[in-house]
Automatic annotation (TrEMBL):
Residues 29-89 form the HTH tetR-type domain. This is HTH tetR-type domain-containing protein. Residues 52-71 bind DNA. It comes from the Bacteria. Residues 1-23 are annotated as: Disordered.
Amino acid sequence: MEPDGPAAPADTSDTEPGSTHVAKAERTLETRERILAAACEVIAEVGFEKIRMRMVAEHAGVSTALLHYHFENRERLFAEAMTHSFGQTGTELERDADTVPASVVLARILHNMLPTDPELRQDWRLWQELWVRALRDETAQQLAVDLYDQLHTWLAQAIRRGIESGEFHDCDVDATSTLLLALSDGFGIRLMLGDPRIDLPAAQAAIWRAVAGTLGVPETFPAI
């Protein structure tokens, strides 16, 4: 494992005379965001076991010392990169969620839980790295459980909204959310592997059919 580098002051731009606290905070946040985005890309490309802090620093266009200032070691960087990636997906899922049918919101969540585009395929590579680490590392295991809890919450909120509006039948929300999570994981892995027996439309259709009767909605996957 690459040894931790020495602590370093933040970007010199953060300490320019006359800079306001707000400007400093914005620059610090921008630097962290750039580092986290770079970490997601590098981890997805080479895997956590091969990653070195220097690789991320070079990809982000910052010094290794600055990277260590923000993230003390690979483990902290990996955990925050996962959370960052997850947060980006969560922001997208909130798009006009209050103005579209609950079935569309739920379909969007399911769409984003599958490797449906290059960015989501990158997210899936990160998930797969986390799964492997979680088998042997208690901290990674807890992170995975916490992230699954957030996914479960997103699904449950969409289902409850549909029930409250009368769009969905009343049902066991937790059981339905758990089923959707399990199906998304299973089909997602096969899509990542390029399994010729399954493609994205078939995966989405199968997942939706599994709960359509429970929710009382048509079996066709909604247009999102």
